[in-house]
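Q: I'm writing up a methods section and want to include an example of the input and output format. Could you take the sequence below and give the corresponding predicted structure tokens, formatted cleanly so I can copy it straight into the document?
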Amino acid sequence: MDIPQAVIGKTKRQAKRHQQIETIEVAPVRRRYTLDELLAQCDMNAPMVTEKEVWGDLRPVGKEVW
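A: Here is the clean output for your methods example:
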């Protein structure tokens, strides 16, 4: 079976005369949404939330600098 150079490049293998392929996995490409599609899902009339409403009174846990 001939393997396209692009596929060989993605597998990071050296082009050899003979290789044994045990499995080939075909998976669907994950759909990428446009910004317009994502914004269409948002309720533009929803009230804005403050940082305090989102984060509450959490204290720093690491080396955060504010």
